[in-house]
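Support case: adenosine-5'-diphosphate complex. Customer-provided input:
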Amino acid sequence: MLVCDFSKRAGRVFFCMIQQTKTVQVRNPEPQRGFSGLGIAPKLLEVLVNLKFQTPTPIQSKAIPTAIEGKDIIGIAQTGTGKTLAFGIPLIQRLMQTGQGMGLVIVPTRELALQDNESLESLGRAFHVKTAVLIGGVAMGYQLRMLQRRPNIIIGTPGRIIDHLRQRTLDLRSVKILILDEADRMLDMGFAPQVNQILEAVPKDRQTMLFSATMPENIVRIATRHMKLPVRVEVAQSGTAAASVEHELFVVKKDQKTRLLDKVLSEHKGSVLLFSRTKHGAKKICRDIKTMGHSTAEIHSNKSLAQRREALEGFKLGKYRVLVATDIASRGIDVKGIEVVINYDLPENPEDYVHRIGRTGRAGLTGRAISFVVPEQRYKIREIERLTRSSFPITPLPELPPVRPGVHVIDEDRRPVFSRRTQTHARRAFGGQRRFTKPSSRY
Ligand code: ADP
Ligand code: MG
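Agent response - structure generated as follows:
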């Protein structure tokens, strides 16, 4: 277990109350030392000591006392700064205090559900907290048995939660605490219809907690409709990238990307997480990396849950040095010691950049983010710079190695990219209907 002192990196901590139009900001530059004094019950403090968590992170210091009081919270803090415990500790404490009611944690991916479950299980073990994970790719029957044990906490992805609601194998009427981890993703256009459907099955009288490193204002507005006077706990402004990550940008032609990748992989010997825009692209890149002589696996929604778990576990254990992923791995995944994150393709939106590169530089460690930018995408860099309030210098392209036999130089991903104008025309042609991609098949 990694123990580190986040408080040294703590910047100014903002604490504000959303109250119609009134916002109160209190500055607190001195984060508290130790978990005592946050309102955590002695037995839970003992668990934290056993798990070797010594100093709360800034988001934990700020969110835990408020959440323990039962208030609704919008928690914003950089990637890798312990948001899981920030909601996990109050969640378990409040459920144990009342001895009744259920907690529901909704997350965007199966991997994050399993990971959050692991954290909550280790926190709750001493209290005999029972959890159930509801995700796709697992037999409904098995999940039904988990539900029949009357779990205290359910962690799941929207699609499978809805499947259970439809089959009447899940009753959410006793939910007292609702958490949306990676909340801005859960409330974006892709997931919102499903999340809204789940919210209809959950009692209105409940505590709601939202956590993310990015929280666009339009999402906050949507979120507050589902909350009771939420307290906004903001350790770093939304979109702040992890300070411990160094950014490097190369402007590169499409057909030079594989050679640049060859060069980058030969220069970095540690674990590498690489993001591709599409599943098809991920498969091709993975093939190329194998030809370059590195151990690698791919993770995206065309793979079965078993394959996805094997790839992630193999990556954690060092069996695969390079994990090639779609944005399925951009949110929440906590793998210790990823040395480099490579954006082989830039993400669709600037928020995803913050989350992708947040897979490195976690829990006080340093990391590096390398992005390949094709010349026509320079505008995306400006969008990312605007969100993160930073400027990223462009590194001159190094001398590239020759193309290896068997490596594909031409980008096979030929999915057409429509301009906004074309999209509008297309929408009219489709009778004004906006077409959404099903969230589960997006990555
Ligand atoms: P986030 O959700 O903010 O991205 P996580 O909750 O996944 O971050 O935590 C990132 C890592 O930091 C995890 O490995 C977790 O065990 C570790 N961690 C969390 N809180 C602390 C703490 N107070 N002290 C040391 N490590 C911590
Ligand atoms: Mg998280």
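The pocket of magnesium ion (ligand 2) is lined by residues 83-84, 181, 332 (CB under 6 Å).

Case will auto-close in a few days if no follow-up is received.
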